[in-house]
Every structure is written in structure tokens, then in C-alpha cells.
Amino acid sequence: MKYQPVFLFFWFLLLCSGVSAQQTERQYLSGTGLNNTVTWRFRCSEGRNSGKWSKIEVPSQWELQGFGEYTYGRWYKKKGVKNPSMEEGVYRRTFTVPAGWKGKNIRLWFDGVMTDTEVLVNGFSAGETHRGGFYRFSYDVTSMVKYGASNKIEVRVRKHSDNKSVNAAERKADWWLFGGIYRPVWLEAKPEMRIEHIAVDARADGDMRLHATLKGLRGKEKLVAALRLAGEVDETPQSRTWEIGHDSVFTHFWNDIEPWTPEAPRLYDLAVSLLNGEGEQVHQTTVRIGFRTVDFRPRDGIYLNGTKLVMKGINRHSFHPDGGRTTDKEISIQDALLIKEMNMNAVRSHYPPDEHFLDACDSLGLLYVDELAGWQNAYDTATGGKLVKEMIERDVNHPCIVLWSNGNEGGWNTATDKLFHLYDPQHRHVIHPWADFDELDTHHYPAFLTGVGRFTNGYKVFMPTEFMHGQYDQGHGAGLEDFWARYTAHPLFAGGFMWAYSDEAVRRADRNGMLDSEGYNAPDGIVGPYREKEGSFYSVREIWSPIKVEPLMVTSSFKGRFLVTNRYLFTNLKQCSMRYRILSCPSPLMGGAGVCVVDSGAVELPPLEPGETGYACMAAWADCGKPETFFKGDVLELEAVAPDGKSVCTRTYPIRGAKNYLDAQLASLRVTGEGGNVEETDSLVILHSAMVDISFRRSNATVCSVLRKRDHHIIPLKDGPLPVGMQMKLVSLTARTERNGDAVLCARYRGGADSIVWRLRPDGLLKMDAVLLNRASGGGGFDDAFTDEAVLNLGFTFSYPEEECTGMRWMGRGPYRVWKNRIPGTNYGIWQKDFNNTITGESTDRLVYPEFKGYHANLYWAVILGEKSAFTVYSATDGVFFRVFTPEEPHGRQDGIHTMPDFPSGDLSFLLDIPAIRSFKPVSQHGPQSQPGIIRIKKGDEGLRLGLLFDFR
């Protein structure tokens, strides 16, 4: 970095001056967050532990400390509930002000209190009652405190405000309502001649306007600014000195600036010093800034440093189960890292977050939409005006903030819109979430074909501030691939924000620590309350990956080249990397215990600018053509890596289809055992082998029992195959023993299935070959010769008792379950999970993911684990979905409303199609991948095949 030589003299003065550099001093009266608290005296007016003096940790929400009553904001919509909990709390403690602070300006700061706050210091009122629970506020207590002696503070907090608009904006809301001093409290000492506040407009080219509020000036003072890279201590900074006149705006152009972007979040420390008339430094403050230019262009887009933004965002509340809205820096960093891990680049909330979360967004690179609270109702103009000022004065210098938001879904007061630019020298654009306002359409929860006058046929910049609602297992990744492809194809699309980041379950102090998400109101997260990752976490990560591998199938023609698209905003693909691995996945037939790596190496990425597509090439292929090891593997794995060395996405592709894979595994087996035979009775047909006997019912050709002979144990897979998504009626049943010793049963049907052939080999392996929807033989499931039929599920189902199952080990896409419209994010490999009965988003304790029950994609084989009843099934058909039991519906869901589509009858199913799941909107309003499959059968078609192999040995 270049610097001005004249500054060396100033820097020498700073170090050697007889007047010491006076920094702002801070003394906490509370702790700093959830895991760092200070004990105060406390009395609560109503509810638990009320009417007596006790102790409470500060900061905290008093409900989680055992006081008052829990209330969710939708109380006003509940029948029979007239009022929410209305407690008042009184806090007291003593503190000592350092004697050395005498002669300085002392302010008492509150970072957040819910909701009306009255403060007394040594029995004197500190000032007017503060109203509004999400904002930082302060009082000048210089004249009230005693220096070097004990002082008393009393804070009176009303959970509900005496201002109706505050209650309407904050309390009648779709979130938990808490009371208390939930963010830190501190004293701050500054010299009488001081820098009161700084607001910086630092542009991407290095041009800066510094707005300074200065107090106690006597004349002939100077202001000095020194700039260095954040965290750099050895670097000599650039500097600028201004004479202080009547203007409070100071300008300078800084050289060799690296602009801030979400992909390269370069930060600078700006040290601003106030010098008295003698040139002595009397006060210094440091702000962390980023140089970037935010520009909203009507009928065009939102630009950052001249680049049009597409925000991949999430809505996040400041929330933790153990603290309510009391969090800490560690939680903020954890959340920011998890959001970045999903390849998101933007965040929104319904109110200003903890400042340490904005710090994390600044340093890690997340765009932020900072919102004045107002959930469907607005503050009155007088109150709202004060809160706008408080919000912007705290947050104005954070480079992550690219938009201001005035309320939510009708919770805006247009009279306060003009105040945002009054306090923000950057004049960032102001939005009204949910509305089409000031050339930016933020329409919530658009349907896939949202049209006339809006996105499809509109001419406004489009950025839904809420979409892909994630209640329970619905939303987020479900249907996102369609929505995102459609949105990003439009030049007026500026991004979108999913609802929401985490399930907001609070650990109830009045229910023995049980987690409570208030029924269906709060389990909307893509992560659980303790940040457990749901399946959609990985779906979003893949769909929003900045390095996209275009659709790829590995065939014998594959030459190591494939198309990639750069979907970064600012990064050239040459700054990134990719690596591959060839994985071998031996089946239980081969005694394989897990995945092994056959080969690995680098992938050469083309130097693509954002938005460009080109060919990547596996280095081994470029060097020597086709590597000998490649087709010895089963799965190709590609991992994309960002410039910082962190993985952004891993994708896998099968090298062998299911049938080729199974044939290769079987080819290595030597068939042993005595030849089988067939036994027929009045009600059963029994296929015998030396290892296993299989009994079928004559009435419908379903499995009656499976006997494993070595221990005479019955494997409880039975009552199938029954049809799913079709009808079929048994026409004939024939059995025979073939020369090779196979015992064969052939069932022919009328309807959806043409035939199912069962073949029990001498070694005890049982094959099932089914032909569905075959017009060639005159079968088929439909009356017309030419028919289109919509199906939600298609295949066969069996019964198997849950209590016999302890887990599952399988090869296919995993480890998470899927829906038809939420398959991205799962990868090919060998996976294992223990049995669990997790209900997504609903738990009285920590959630266990991945969920065990549900649909699993692209089955190759699966071992159903159990103490005595384990068995293995293999697929000889590509694209088979394996349904494992039926997930429970959430107990807290709305009455009569199912969160999931109906599952087939039975317990274990093998399906060629499965249903999609909704995301707030009905499935019919989603994209094509969410719609029911259309089956078209013509005369002469060979139909569909579904082949399975069972190993009960």
C-alpha cells in the first residue's frame, strides 16, 4: 500500500506526544453474551417466581431464567387467548466508576432490551423511557455517577409497551416474545472534546466521505485519518489531515484500494483522531470499513462495484434454544460459516441483528439486508423515526449492508422512508419486503409461473425477500432447482431469500428443559435449533454452487472432459480448483466393507469469467488418454474448491449402471449348492433351495414367508409385491425347476403389470423380474390404446416390521432421504445410518439427522440391519427409489393438514417414481420437476422393467 510521507511525522507525534492518545474506554455492567453473563438482582411482576427479589443473569431473556411466562407472537390469533404474558421486571446492581473517568463524558449503553425500558442511576432518571426491543440506545449519565465510589442502577422493563404501535410492530408477530435485558449493558467514557460518531461512505475506487459528529470543540482543531488493512500491525498506513471548519463532511481519495465483495471481503481499519489547537491528540476512535459501491438501477438491478448482484439468501433470526434472542459472537460466526457453506451470499432478518453477526458478515463475505422491525404492522412516525436513527447510527459503517428495509409485509410507515437517507451517507436503497415498491418488487412466495404485472411480464427488478418456506421437511431445496433456473434466466432477477435459517425451538425452563417450537409456527429452519443440518442444507449447497458442473453422464464415450459454468459474481474460475476421485464400492456379495479410492487427481478448470461456460478436463486424461483404472471404479466424484481452499460442492456420477454393477458382482460368484425344487399345495407355491425357502400365496402371488434354513429363522419380509400407483390382477401362476437348478415361479397379470418372474438360485439368491405397462403383449393398465396417466408413485411394496430393523447400510444416493423435487445434494456412495424416528423440525431434544425413514434415490443395494432378521436387496434397474418405512407426521402440525404426500401401503417399497413435496405453495404451483410423472403407453411399447435380487442368507 502506498502512503503519504508527511504522515510519518504525525505517527511519530502519536507515539511520543506528552498528551496520551485517549481511546474510548468501556466497562461492562453485564456479560457479553449467552455464555458470558453477570448476576443482577431481579424481581418479576407476574408468572413464575414473581413478586419477590431473586437473581438473574444478564444478558438473558427472563423466561429462560425461570421467570414470567412463555408467549408466542401469534397469541392474538388463538381462540380463547385474550392477552399475552404482560410481565414487568426490575433489575438492580451496584457498580464502580473509575476515578480516572472524572472530567470525561460518560454514557450508559443498552444493546437491546425488551421492550419498554426506564433507567434510574443513583435514584435519578437517566432519561425518557426507551421503546423498541431490537435497538441500541444510550443515556448521558455524566452528572449522575459518583467517581471512584459505588453507584446504583435500576432498570425497569415492561415486556409489552405502553405504545400501541410498538406492540403492533414487534409483539403481534410470528416469533417468540421474550422480556428482559437480552443484549449487553456497558458504560463508555470519552473525553469532553471527542468524536461522538462517524459515518463513512467508502467507494470501490478509493473515494471516501467521512461524516463526523464532534463535541466540545474550541476552535483550530484538526481531524486525522489513518488507513491500514484490517489486522495488519506492521504496515505503515496511509493518512489524511483536515482542518475542522463548519463542514462536518471530510473527503479523501485513498490509493491502491482493494474493494470489498462477498467473494473477497477485504476490510480496512480507519483510525480517526481529533487533535486540539496545539496539535495534541485528544481522542481517537477506529472503525472497520470496506470500500465498495452499492448502486440500485431501476429496470436493471442492484449493483456492487459495477457488478450486478444475484443474492442467494436466507432469513435469519437472532435466536438460540438456550438463550432465546441472547446469543454471542461464537454463535454469530457459526451461523455465518454455515450460511456460507450452503453457498449463500446474503442474509435478511426482521430486525437489526446482534452487531457481532454483522461483523461476521463483513469479514466472511455475506451481503445483508438490514430491517427496521414491523411484522405486518408499523411503528408510529415519532417512535419509528427514533428507531430508524438508532438502527442506522449503529450499523451504517458495515460494508455487508447493501439494502435497508422498512418493516415487513405491511409493517412499513412510509413517513419514515426519507429518514434512511438522512442518516446514511451512502443512500442505500430502501425496500418494503413483500411489496412492489420504488422499482424493486419483493413479492413473497411467488409461484413458479408468477406472472402478469410481476416477474414474467413485469419490468421491475425482482427479488423475493421470502420464498421456499421450510416448514418441517417442506421447502428450501424442494423445487429450488426449477425456481432458480427460471429466475436466473431473467435479466431483472436480483436474488431471493429463503425462509428460514434455523428451527426456533426454545428450551423451556418450565417444562424440564424440553424444546418447544410452538407447534407448526417455528420449525421453519434449514438447520435445527442447535444447527443440525437437514437434507435441504445439501440440496441448496449443490444448486447454489458457484462452480456448476453441467448435466453429465459417464458412458463408454467419456473422455475426461465436461462442461462447467462459472456462477460466481466476481471470481474468475482460474482462481479455483477441482479434484476428482474414482471410487470402488464393493457390494456385500464381494464382502466389501466400504468405499475405496481407485484413483484421484486434479481437474484442469478453464479461465472462465463469471457467467461463462467451458470445458474442464481431468488431468490424467489429458496426459495419457483414458486411464486404465477409470472403468475399474463404480463412481466418479468431483469436488470443486474455492480460492480460499474450502470445498464448495461435491458431486458424484455412476460409472456403472445398476444392472452392469450387479452383473459384475454376480459374475465373480461361483454358484454352489444343490439344485432347487418347487413344492405346490392348495394355498402355496414354495421355492426351495439349500439355503432359503420362499413361500408364495396362490391367490395373489405375494410372499407369504421367507425361511432361512441355517437357523430356521423367518425373515419377516412378506405381503408383496403389491402394486403402487397402478392396479394389477393375477391371471395365471406357473412354477418349474430348470436344468441349472433354479426354482422358478412366473406370475402373469392383467392391468399395470404384465408379469413377475421369481427365480431362486441354488445358492439361495432370489431374483425378481417385473414387466410393467407392456402394450406389446396386450397387457397394460389402461383402457385406451393411447393414454397419458399421471402417477405419484409407481412400483411395488412389501411389509416388514419396524421393530425388527436396527439400521440400514446401502449403496446409492445418500445419506439423506429425498423427494422427487429434492434429489440434489445426495451423492452416490456407501452409506449407513441407525434406525431413528426423527420427525424433521420437531423434537423435544436434539434432532438426529439424517432421518431414517422415507425415500432413498438410485438404489444399488441395501442391507436392512437387524439382530436376526437382516437381509440384502440389490437393484438391477437404474433409478429405483427405495422407500424405507413411513415417516411420522409432525404432532404439532395444523389440524387435519398433512405436511407430506401420502406414502404407499406397506413398509419397504421399490419405486420408479415418487411424489414431490410442497414448499409453502401447493405442488401444482411449483416447476416441472415437482409435477406428477406422466406415463404414456402405446401399442408396441415394451413397457418398464424393475429387477431386484434378494439375499436372505
UniProtKB/TrEMBL annotation:
Domain Glycoside hydrolase family 2 immunoglobulin-like beta-sandwich per the UniProt entry, residue ranges: 194-292
Entry keyword Hydrolase: yes
N-terminal signal peptide: 1-21
Keyword Calcium listed: yes
GO biological process: lactose catabolic process
Residues covered by the Glycoside hydrolase family 2 catalytic domain: 302-422
Pfam families listed in its UniProt record: Glyco_hydro_2, Glyco_hydro_2_C, Glyco_hydro_2_N
Coiled coil region boundaries: none
Tree of life domain: Bacteria
E.C. numbers: 3.2.1.23
Chemical reaction(s) catalysed: Hydrolysis of terminal non-reducing beta-D-galactose residues in beta-D-galactosides
One Gene Ontology CC term in the entry: beta-galactosidase complex
Molecular function GO terms recorded: beta-galactosidase activity; carbohydrate binding
Annotated ranges, domain Glycosyl hydrolases family 2 sugar binding: 54-191
Alphabetized PROSITE patterns for the sequence: GLYCOSYL_HYDROL_F2_2
Cofactor: Ca(2+)
Keywords: Calcium, Glycosidase, Hydrolase, Signal
Gene3D superfamilies: 2.70.98.10, Galactose-binding domain-like, Glycosidases, Immunoglobulins
SUPFAM superfamilies: (Trans)glycosidases (SSF51445), beta-Galactosidase/glucuronidase domain (SSF49303), Galactose mutarotase-like (SSF74650), Galactose-binding domain-like (SSF49785)
Subunit-level organization: Monomer.
PANTHER family in the cross-refs: BETA-GALACTOSIDASE (PTHR46323:SF2)
UniProt family annotation: Belongs to the glycosyl hydrolase 2 family.
The protein's name in its UniProt record: beta-galactosidase
Organism: Bacteroides fluxus YIT 12057
